[in-house]
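for the writeup, i need someone to sanity check this before i put it in the appendix. the sequnce is what the collaborator sent (i think, or maybe the updated version? ugh). structure was predicted straight from it, no edits. if anything looks off just tell me and ill rerun, i have time this weekend
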Amino acid sequence: MGILGNFIYRSLLFAYRNYGKVPSGFIEPEIEGAVKKAIEDIRVYVQNYEFKKICDTLLGLAITGNKYLQEREPWKLKETDPDEARDVIHNALWLSRAIAILGEPVFPFHAYEVYRQLGLDGNSYSLDEALRAVNIGRKLTKPRPLFNQLSEERLQELEATLSRRISMASGNSS
């Protein structure tokens, strides 16, 4: 989830620091196409309770978003082509919102946090809402990272706890 959280945080932080609101822009066909495909896939995965596949699809969207930001470099564009920089960040925020909407079935708390940081209400949204425009001019709140990084020690503790629970569930009491 680090890649996903990183993409959303980067997008929100850049927008917050440079615009303070959702900038105007148009949605790139490649970004829109990726979200449309994800919606189709996630509809099937939700019906079949395939939560790992939902997460993999969301991760794919975040990777697409990170690649888009790296290739377009809005931090450079804001000096050389401010309109293009706004378009890039508009796309990044649109994709962040789409990821939150599509991810709500598997991480509702984090989806609501993205909504809050985008200045949206805490309502649930249908999957099709992921294709609707973000509210241009909506004031952004100061972003916070979505996920805490786990230390290696904490990760080992969680793995040990999981192993014990699996062992207990399968009848082994070690």
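Residues 165 and 173 are 10 Å apart (CA to CA). The longest helix spans residues 51-72.
thx in advance!!
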